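Example 9 (inverse folding). The structure is encoded as follows.
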C-alpha cells in the first residue's frame, strides 16, 4: 500500500543551474521557477568539480531563494566527488539531493545511509534520475527503496541515446519508459518530473512536450533555460477553467450528498468520489502555487 500522501508542493518548473556559474546562480533568485537544481554533475567539467561545490556553497550561504525548492545534483557516490558532495549537502540549506543514473534500490539505500552517517537532517529528501534502460526496468524497486525518496526525475536525453532511439517530436520511442516511470512513482506516492527539452528555438515543440507530459501524469518538467519556465508553469498548473470546474464538482457533490442522492452530473458528466478527490487536489495545488 502506498504511504500517506505528502503535502502538495508545486513542481511545475524545475530548472537545472550549472554549479560552476555564479552569475546564473545569482540570477536564479529572481526566476519564477518552482525549483532549482544546482548541478555538480553533467554541467561541470571534472577539473572544476571542487570549485563548483564551493560556488554553490557561497550561493546558498547568501540565501535569497525564497520558497523555491532547492536541490543539489550530486556526482555518483562511487565517484571521487560523490562522498564530498553528500557531505556538503548534509550541512547546506537544501530540500533534496538528486542522484544521477540510478539503476537499483541498493544505490538509493547506500546514499540514504551515507546521508544518515553524515548527519543530514531527516527532511533532506532523495530524488532519483531514471535515465538508462536498467533504471527504467528497475523503477519499481527504486521508488520503494527509502523513506527519504520523494521525487523521480526522467533523464530523457541519456535514455534516448542508450535506447538508440530517434529524438522525435511526439516522443513515441519513449512512451513506454515514461509511463513505466509514472506508474512506479504513483505506486509509492511520489511526484515525478519529465525530462528536458533541448531545442531552445522550438517553442511549439516544448509546449507540445509539456502538454504530453501532463497528459501522461507528470507533475512538472525539468528545464535547461529560464525562457522555458513560463510555459511549464502554465502547462502543469491548473487553468482558470480547471479551477472553476473543480469548484463546481465539489459544490454539486456536496449538494447531492446533503440531499441523499447517489449520482450527480456536472457539465453533463457523471461525478463520483474519485472526481471530487481530484477536484480537491486541483484546488490544493492552486493554493500551494499562490503561497510559493
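The amino acid assigned to each position is listed next.
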Amino acid at each position: 500500500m502506498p504511504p500517506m500522501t505528502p503535502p502538495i508542493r508545486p513542481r511545475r518548473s524545475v530548472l537545472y543551474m550549472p554549479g560552476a556559474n555564479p552569475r546564473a546562480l545569482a540570477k536564479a533568485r529572481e526566476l519564477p521557477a518552482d525549483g532549482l537544481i544546482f548541478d555538480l554533475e553533467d554541467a561541470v567539467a571534472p577539473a572544476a568539480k571542487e570549485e563548483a561545490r564551493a560556488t554553490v556553497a557561497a550561493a546558498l550561504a547568501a540565501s535569497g531563494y525564497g520558497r523555491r525548492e532547492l536541490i543539489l545534483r550530486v556526482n555518483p557516490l562511487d565517484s571521487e566527488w560523490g562522498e564530498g558532495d553528500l557531505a556538503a549537502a548534509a550541512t547546506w540549506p537544501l530540500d533534496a539531493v538528486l542522484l544521477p543514473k540510478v539503476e537499483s534500490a541498493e544505490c538509493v539505500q547506500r546514499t540514504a545511509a551515507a546521508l544518515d552517517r553524515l548527519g543530514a537532517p531527516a527532511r533532506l529528501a532523495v530524488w532519483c534520475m531514471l535515465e538508462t534502460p536498467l533504471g527504467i526496468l528497475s523503477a519499481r524497486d527504486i521508488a520503494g527503496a527509502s523513506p527519504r525518496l520523494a521525487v523521480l526525475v526522467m533523464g530523457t536525453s541519456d535514455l534516448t541515446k542508450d535506447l538508440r532511439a530517434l529524438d522525435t517530436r511526439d516522443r513515441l520511442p519513449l512512451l513506454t519508459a515514461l509511463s513505466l516511470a509514472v506508474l512506479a512513482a504513483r505506486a509509492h506516492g511520489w511526484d515525478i518530473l519529465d525530462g528536458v527539452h533541448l531545442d531552445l528555438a522550438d517553442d511549439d515543440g516544448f509546449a507540445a512536450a509539456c502538454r504530453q507530459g501532463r497528459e501522461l501524469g507528470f507533475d512538472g518538467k525539468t528545464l535547461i533555460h529560464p525562457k522555458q519556465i513560463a510555459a511549464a508553469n502554465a502547462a502543469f498548473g491548473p487553468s482558470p477553467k480547471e479551477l472553476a470546474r473543480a469548484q463546481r464538482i465539489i459544490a454539486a457533490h456536496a449538494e447531492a450528498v446533503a440531499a441523499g442522492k447517489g449520482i450527480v452530473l456536472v457539465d453533463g458528466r457523471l461525478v463520483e468520489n474519485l472526481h471530487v478527490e481530484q477536484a480537491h487536489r486541483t484546488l490544493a495545488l492552486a493554493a500551494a502555487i499562490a503561497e510559493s
